[in-house]
Amino acid sequence: MGNTYPDGNNHVCADCGHEWPMAAAVPVEDNADAVVRDANAKVLVNGDAVVLIKDLKVKGLSITLKIGTRVKSIRLVGGDHEVDCKMDAGSFMLKACFLKKV
To answer: How far is it, in rounded angstroms, from Cα 47 to Cα 75?
Structure first.
């Protein structure tokens, strides 16, 4: 993601301030116990289409991801930001609690 930067032994998300180790994130499909759920507690899987349920400001940039924006073909990854996706505004990692399955 373009809004992360290395800091010592960690990566830091400029959007939310979350820090995680520089070791590669484990994809959810490798960890059978991890289940990612959206804001309505529906299970998300790779390739799902989702919709934003809240306006999300992108820190460090002057853009806002608008409510109702549809995101196609999500990819699930491990960590605090569970969903990796591409939109017209760029590539982002989002928390599943701000998404609703379509």
So the answer is: 6
Residue 4 falls inside a structural domain? no
Residue 45 lies in domain: 25-101
Does some domain include residue 58?
yes
What tokens does 24 get?
């590669």
pTM: 0.65
Residue 75, strand partner residues? 84
Residue 57 lies in a domain: yes
- Beta-carbon contacts of 32 under 8 Å, excluding residues fewer than 6 positions away, are none
pLDDT tens for each residue of 31-64? 545 799 999 999 999 999 999 999 999 888 889 9
